[in-house]
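Checklist before submission:
- one chain only
- standard amino acids only
- sequence pasted in full

Submission:
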Amino acid sequence: MSAHDPGVRVALPGACPLCGSTAATPGIGGTDRLFATTTRRFELVRCRGCGLLRQSPMPAADEIASFYPENYWFAADGTTAGRLEEAYRRMVLRDHVRFVRAALKKVDPRAPVLDVGCGGGLFLGMLRERGCKVLGLDVSAEAAGIAWRRHGVPAVCGLLENEPLAPGSCAAVTMFHVLEHLPDPRAYLEAAGRLLRPGGTLVVQVPNAACWQFRLLGAAWTGVDVPRHLVDFRARDIETLVASCGFRVVRSKHFSLRDNPAGLASSLAPALDPMARRVRRLSESGVGKLARDLVYFGLVAAALPFAALEAAFRAGSTVMVEARRP
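Returned file contents:
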């Protein structure tokens, strides 16, 4: 096998995390439009071997941590606007819940679903309400605590590559918008393979850099989200990576009611994005917050037809993949 073979673990600094090639051509550049954690400009390059888009140079680990605000997850704040936002999130997360529950039909029901990057635990809480055994993992201790307290989800703080559970202990591992944040996404997929029981299910979702939104908006598309997104997968890239880690891809889905319309709305009006406003700790009155939320959700509704159309042509702004461990 060559050093550029997708099955080879990348070790070279600056190498493509998919094929291992170090040859690349300039892509696009951008700044932190959403959270404004830094004023720096970040450059993306396209791999000459496989076409994968990635940040170059990759930020150092301690620098990456500075790009993530402390409140980088959703947790309802008890206000009217907060309760409405949680109700909205529950509605759109049903899309994810249906996908995962369908994937669980052929796995051992005695073993839990591990959600990596669980945040405040709302998704796992919804699975638990439907009778699933669940576990959460997040790099934030505060987020894991919120998952426990608000949604009754057993959650711990840690990294998947550090093997937080016994091998073969999970029926399913889910990763929603996790892999694009990692300098070495292969390490997480390999760790997931070790945690899954034979025949277990892997569900991953990433932004799709082959979507119409990216073609129209370029670096203004929120799926780029520099500096936090280190790798920008196309649908074929993520399927190739998953397969190279020993999984069999079963199905893929190009539409997410939670992510696709909202991604377009946030690309067009990042200052209205509720998470971005919360992360930036903007001073807002209750009425002002509610008014901005309503305008934003109106924009999300207006974006829905376009988001559905691009997904119908398998060019949606996210791709969700189900794969099985043989």
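Reviewer check: The chain is about 35% helix and 20% strand.
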